[in-house]
TrEMBL record:
InterPro entries in the cross-refs: HPT_dom_sf, Sig_transdc_His_kin_Hpt_dom
PROSITE patterns reported in the protein's UniProt record: HPT (PS50894)
Gene source species: Litorivivens lipolytica
The keyword Methyltransferase appears for this protein: no
Gene3D superfamilies in UniProt: HPT domain (1.20.120.160)
One Pfam family per UniProt: Hpt
Example GO BP: phosphorelay signal transduction system
Protein name (Swiss-Prot/TrEMBL): HPt (Histidine-containing phosphotransfer) domain-containing protein
Keywords: Phosphoprotein, Two-component regulatory system
């Protein structure tokens, strides 16, 4: 089973403020705003793939999540997406519903954290 995010000293579980070392504050906020716009659609696609029991679609969506979250997460969420993507691609008929639901839950936490950050 995949791990859950752990709350960091800044109060965020998934969102990384360390990315501010690589981006200006304005660029980081702009990146988060784009992410806040795109992420719900990606999570919905992952939910749909899970409902349809479509491992290939779930794996492709997890790949997208892995790439996107790697820019803004200190947590292991990108690695969890990668692990689950590879698992879905290598094992036909694998029942990964619980793990996919955990990823979806963590993405929702990330979305809430982004919204909170952008309001500050």
């Amino acid at each position: 089973m995949l791990s859950r995010g752990v709350e960091h000293s800044d109060g965020y579980r998934e969102l990384s403020n360390s990315a501010l070392d690589e981006f200006s504050t304005a660029d980081y906020r702009a990146l988060l705003e784009v992410y806040l716009d795109v992420m719900p659609k990606t999570v919905a696609a992952l939910e749909q793939a899970c409902e349809e029991d479509n491992a290939a679609k779930a794996a492709a969506t997890l790949h997208k999540l892995k790439s996107n979250t790697s820019y803004i997460c200190d947590s292991d969420l990108p690695n969890c997406c990668d692990l689950l993507e590879r698992q879905l691609l290598s094992v036909a008929g694998n029942d990964a519903t619980k793990d996919i639901q955990l990823i979806i839950s963590r993405c929702r936490i990330l979305l809430d954290e982004i919204a909170t950050y952008l309001k500050s």
